[in-house]
Write a structure and sequence with these properties.
The complex is a heterotrimer of chains A (420), B (338) and C (310). Chain A has 420 residues and is an alpha/beta fold. Chain A has 12 helices and 15 strands. Chain A folds into 3 domains: 31 residues; 173 residues, Rossmann fold; 157 residues, Response regulator (Rossmann fold), CATH 3.40.50. Chain A has a 6-stranded mixed β-sheet, with helices on both faces. Chain A has a 4-stranded parallel β-sheet with strand order 8-7-9-10, with helices on both faces. In chain A, helix 2 runs parallel beside helix 11, helix 3 runs parallel beside helix 4 and helix 8 packs parallel to helix 9. The longest helix of chain A has 26 residues. With 338 residues, chain B is mostly helical. Chain B has a domain of 220 residues. Chain B has 15 helices and 2 strands. In chain B, helix 3 runs antiparallel to helix 4, helix 7 packs across helix 9 and helix 11 packs across helix 12. The two termini of chain B are 33 Å apart. The longest helix of chain C is centred in the N-terminal third of the chain and has 32 residues. In chain C, helix 3 runs antiparallel to helix 8, helix 5 crosses helix 6 and helix 11 packs across helix 12. The C terminus of chain C is likely disordered. In chain C, strands 1-2 form a two-stranded antiparallel ribbon. In chain C, strands 3-4 form a two-stranded antiparallel sheet. Classes of the chains: A alpha/beta (420), B mainly alpha (338), C mainly alpha (310). The interface between A and B is large, with 55 and 50 residues.
Chain lengths: 420, 338, 310
């Protein structure tokens, strides 16, 4: 009696609740697929806009979408085989900073959405997972956010990248510090502590720096070379080693979240070095917000800066602000913007939507009005582009200056950095 | 145990064969690459789900740590392939290493019961991930790459995964119907009573853990071979272990078909969820888990069963004691009243 | 490394232990009374950190005050969670997997809510205190760590007083010691459970705010701290709140010194070897497994009713 009451009472409620939930999950997504129209060019974009790399991913997405908008506003890309200008249809997938999903979503874009090319892959691990798919599906893939050379050393024919190799940051850092020594601002024989993330990104950085250091004997002495866990909460162990090493220079290569967390603990530990760098990170607004004046004088080797004196770079910064409503405060958007633009150029040069033809065109393509340092973007034999890095330094009151190379500099380097 | 088969019973016997035949013949209909890819992923996940269910569902030992076996399977396969062995030898090797690891983990942790075992598995999986992230032999956090000389063949990967899921299914069915399976259920219900009946709970748990780990290791290897690149933050991730656990719980814990259903739902639906609700998929899993725990411990399978009975206008309590036993513990069954 | 550096590390470890204790104590009381392994603890820690951040950014309330304000807010929130979800769980003398998975599901929900509200970027609370440090000879200590330590210790003392002096505290301890006897003498177990869950959540929110002052955080913030909380309550499970304090000290010291102590190593000859810092995150996880496995006595103490709340 009692049992049946309970049962009848709870029965329908349970079923309804579960059925609604299930129905929602199973049937809703299927109906949402937007079908690509026939006379458009489908480009897949796979980037993280959720998860730990969401911010850079978002910036890169905005860069790509700005380029697409500009191209479409101008009528699209002229495709000879179709005899007319075609607009770009972007299919965007968020991989949630999960490499399993990056790979499958890239595959999905290439196999089921029939994208003629896929852009994306921010951060080395995610980009590496995606890179496998390019040759598998014979579809051109351009990473706008993975700079580790390991991706391009595998003989892939369809993988391209618009980021200059990470090792070059290390080399440029060596060159920059070397020039400060030559100018007499720093003394020769500097003790350097290097602490990098334990990924290809970090490995390449160390390799680049040690290469320069070995070639120029007497400039540096590397007293500490440690790795740390990506996305860690606590860096006390590694910072203790830095403290004990009594180094003059502190070099790190970290992603944005780790840079913020680590530098916070660096400051709390009362550490100070003549020069401090976090590799490709430094001037980000998020870091300024989190650490305030604590980020002053940090220098970084980056792929792009809004301080670059080229007119097209200035125009890009303005367009970006008009498009997104916020300033382009970091480098992430620029290589993505140019990645889309060089792809458009290659499609036009190929004269058809044949993927292999586009690949061949990409190999030869040159973007003459590139916003990136060097002003010309082209891909090397292995698919990776190579252009110089600029070194920027944070200055008080949220100012950032390019301090190296000299011909692009907007201000003098501060070295050694003042202690409080 | 033996009863004459009714209509429903016959369906149970025939259904797997129909499914298998359908999956094997599917490529003849020239399906899209994407469908084959989704079915591949589904088969891999279902294999892990079936594996987990052997330990978690049948023996009642819930583990958050199956990512360890998945990852070890992936790495072992990759290393063996790198050394020039056939991928199939690699899968066997992956299973072997995963089983070995299961003994290393099980020997100390199976002295713990219930939630303490669960917590220990969380610790193990996190520790293994950090260690693998820093191990130079396997490329550390940079990950590992598999390069195969021959051209990529989606169908070969597909058939391999189907074979794995069939193996996992057969193993599950055989164990479920065997004396060993009975011993496992006894352990789930009451370890001490089972021991009094002459079952050795410790060794039984060790063996079922090893079998489950082996299946998960094979799945990891198959996944890795197709992905061609993987790294510890991916295959050893806590999230991977969670996914492996969620599937059978969502599908219907303790039953072979529940594990299959969970794997299928997860494999086929997860990507759609990620694509269309990138901001909501944790919320959906979380709510689903809460709803299942509080309202329908038998998971989706229980719900289906219930709907089926509703349709047939035969009202009876369908709550299986299996799920109650695992989720609510021995003293808990009477407490589940609303 | 010289003596001063070791002293420096020891001080840092002790300061860390204060926060760790505050972090674990909420989990302990909930476990003690309800036998629920509260995986949602991580979510409450995360919410606590964001609570302090919001208070600081919107109303310019000092995060320490924000942490104190988190106590009543999270107390009510915890009671609400208990009323909506937890009370439906069956009573059990031993922890059930249902409770574990339920709280895990709730953790996923909380995390997702965190992502929706605050996005995925790392946030941090920046006050003038954050980056300044006190210099004593060669040792420098971050001021914020001192403040956080003091707040944590004061709060633990208040909790002790509540547990011993108030009617609620007594009924709570009675329930922990012997639920049947407690019910016979008239303790309202549902009400006490609700209040306990509130109390545990309040402490989680408080500790989360304190952690938010020390570390930068994102909605995925709580997980490493959740595991540390496990280690601590298992370690300190023998006795009470002071047991938790002890567990916190052990964990903090081991973690801090793990990379600073030379380990003897035999490879053809004896040599000393330092644990690379990148392996440091293994310490709490490995310790968790070790403690669970080699201290079943400690566990028995924790999970038996002999365990005392004071």
């Amino acid at each position: 009696m009692r049992k049946s009451q309970i049962f009848v009472g709870g029965h329908f409620r349970r079923i309804t609740a579960l059925a609604i939930l299930l129905g929602g999950i199973t049937f809703f997504p299927g109906s949402m697929r937007a079908l690509a129209a026939d006379d458009t060019i489908t480009i897949g974009v796979v980037l993280p806009t959720t998860g730990s790399e969401s911010k850079p991913g978002q910036y890169q997405k905005e860069g790509i979408e700005l380029a697409i908008k500009q191209i479409n506003d101008a009528g699209g890309i002229m495709v000879k085989s179709k005899g007319k200008k075609l607009k770009i249809n972007e299919i965007f997938y968020d991989d949630g900073t999960d490499s399993k999903k990056s790979a499958s979503l890239t595959e999905r874009a290439m196999s089921s959405d029939n994208a003629v090319a896929v852009l994306g892959g921010y951060s080395t691990a995610l980009g590496t997972a995606e890179s496998v798919m390019a040759d598998r599906y014979k579809t051109p893939w351009i990473t706008t956010g993975a700079g580790a050379t390991a991706i391009f050393g595998k003989g892939y024919q369809y993988a391209f990248g618009t980021l200059s190799p990470v090792a070059l940051i290390g080399t440029t850092t060596g060159e920059f510090l070397g020039s400060l020594i030559d100018q007499g601002k720093l003394k020769k024989g500097l003790k350097v502590a290097i602490v990098v993330e334990n990924t290809d990104h970090g490995v390449d950085y160390v390799q680049g720096f040690t290469e320069w250091s070995n070639k120029h004997a007497g400039y540096f002495e590397i007293v500490l070379n440690e790795k740390f866990e990506l996305n860690a909460t606590d860096f006390s162990g590694v910072l203790q080693k830095v403290k004990t090493s009594k180094a003059d220079i502190f070099l790190s290569d970290a992603h944005l979240p780790d840079y913020i967390t680590m530098h916070r603990q660096y400051l709390q530990n009362g550490l100070h070095h003549q020069m401090v760098s976090y590799g490709a990170r430094g001037p980000e607004a998020g870091a300024r917000q989190a650490l305030g004046a604590g980020t002053d004088y940090i220098f970084s080797g980056i792929w792009w800066s809004n301080k670059l004196p080229y007119p097209q770079a200035k125009k890009f910064a303005e367009d970006y602000k008009a498009f997104t409503g916020h300033d382009v405060d970091s480098w992430y958007a620029a290589p993505a913007y140019d990645g889309m633009r060089i792809l458009a150029k290659a499609i036009e040069a190929a004269g058809s939507l044949d993927k292999t033809a586009i690949r061949d065109a990409l190999k030869k393509a040159q973007l003459k009005d590139s916003v990136l340092p060097g002003q010309v973007l082209k891909f090397g034999a292995n698919g990776q582009s190579e252009y110089p890095f600029v070194i920027t330094q944070n200055k008080p009151d949220n100012k950032v200056d390019i301090v190296f190379p000299k011909d692009a500099a907007t201000g003098p380097p501060v070295a050694p950095t003042p202690n409080k | 145990m033996k009863r004459p088969l009714g209509a429903a019973g016959w369906i149970k016997v025939i259904l797997p064969w129909i499914l298998l035949a359908g999956l094997l013949l599917l490529p003849a209909t020239h399906p899209s690459d994407n469908l084959i890819r989704l079915l591949f992923i589904t088969a891999v996940w279902t294999t892990t789900s079936l594996g987990w269910n052997l330990l978690g569902g049948m023996a009642g030992q819930v583990s958050f740590g199956f990512a360890v076996f998945f990852g070890l399977g992936a790495y072992t396969t990759a290393l063996l392939m790198h050394a020039g062995h056939s991928p199939y030898f690699g899968f066997v090797g992956g299973a072997a290493i995963a089983m070995l690891a299961s003994f290393l983990i099980g020997l100390p942790t199976f002295r713990l019961r219930g939630p303490y075992f669960v917590i220990a598995t969380i610790g193990v999986t996190e520790a293994v991930r950090v260690i693998m992230n820093n191990l130079d032999v396997t490329g550390g956090a940079s990950g590992y790459r598999i390069t195969e000389d021959k051209p990529f063949s989606p169908l070969e990967h597909y058939y391999t995964a189907i074979a794995a899921v069939a193996l996992a299914f057969v193993v599950s069915m055989v164990i479920a119907g065997s004396k060993f399976g009975l011993a496992l259920r006894a352990i789930k219900q009451d370890e001490d009573a089972a021991a009094d009946l002459g079952v050795n709970p410790f060794t039984s748990k060790l063996w079922i853990h090893a079998i489950a780990a082996g299946l998960t290791g094979i799945a990891g290897g198959i996944y890795a071979r197709r992905a061609a690149f993987f790294y510890p933050g991916d295959v050893f991730a806590f999230q991977t272990g969670i996914s492996i656990l969620l599937m059978p719980v969502i599908g219907g814990i303790g039953t072979v078909w529940g594990a299959v259903l969970g794997g299928v739902v997860f494999g086929m639906v997860e990507e759609e969820l990620v694509v269309h609700f990138p901001n909501l998929h944790l919320l959906i899993y979380g709510s689903l888990l809460i709803v299942i725990i509080l309202l329908e411990p038998d998971g989706l399978l229980g719900l289906l069963r219930r709907l089926f009975r509703l349709f047939r206008r035969k009202r009876e309590d369908s709550g299986s004691p299996d799920a109650d036993q695992i989720l609510w513990g021995r003293g808990g069954v009477e407490g589940r009243k609303f | 490394m010289d003596a001063v550096e070791y002293l420096d590390l020891l001080l840092k470890a002790l300061l860390l232990a204060g926060v760790y204790a505050a972090m674990a104590v909420g989990m302990t009381v909930i476990y003690g009374v309800m036998k629920i392994v509260n995986l949602a603890h991580a979510g409450f820690l995360m919410l606590g950190a964001y609570f302090a951040l919001e208070m600081f950014q919107r109303f310019h309330i000092d995060p320490i005050l924000g942490a104190v304000m988190a106590l009543p807010v999270f107390f009510l929130f915890g009671m609400l969670v208990h009323w909506i979800l937890v009370r439906w769980l069956p009573k059990s003398d031993t922890p059930t997997l249902a409770s574990l998975l339920l709280m895990f599901g709730f953790l996923l929900v909380l995390q997702n809510v965190g992502y929706l509200l605050w996005g995925t970027e790392d946030q941090s609370i920046l006050t003038p205190l954050t980056l300044s440090s006190v210099q004593i000879g060669e040792i420098s200590i971050a001021k914020v760590k001192l403040v956080v330590f003091v707040a944590a210790v004061v709060c633990m003392i208040v909790l002790q007083i509540v547990l011993h002096r108030s009617w609620f505290g007594r009924s709570m301890r009675a329930l922990i010691q012997n639920p049947y006897a407690a019910k016979i003498v008239g303790v309202d177990d549902q009400r006490t459970a609700r209040l306990t869950f509130g109390l545990g959540t309040a402490f989680a929110g408080f500790a989360g705010a304190l952690l938010g002052m020390l570390y930068s955080f994102s909605p995925d913030f709580g997980r490493p701290f959740l595991l540390r909380s496990f280690v601590i309550i298992v370690l300190g499970g023998l006795e009470s709140v002071s047991g938790v304090a002890l567990g916190a000290i052990v964990l903090a010291v081991l973690e801090t010194f793990s990379t600073a102590i030379p380990l003897p190593w035999y490879w053809h000859k004896w040599s000393f070897y330092y644990l690379p810092p990148s392996y440091q995150p293994v310490v709490p996880f490995a310790l968790l497994v070790l403690v669970l496995v080699i201290m079943p006595k400690g566990l028995a103490g924790l999970f038996n009713r002999k365990w005392k709340a004071a």
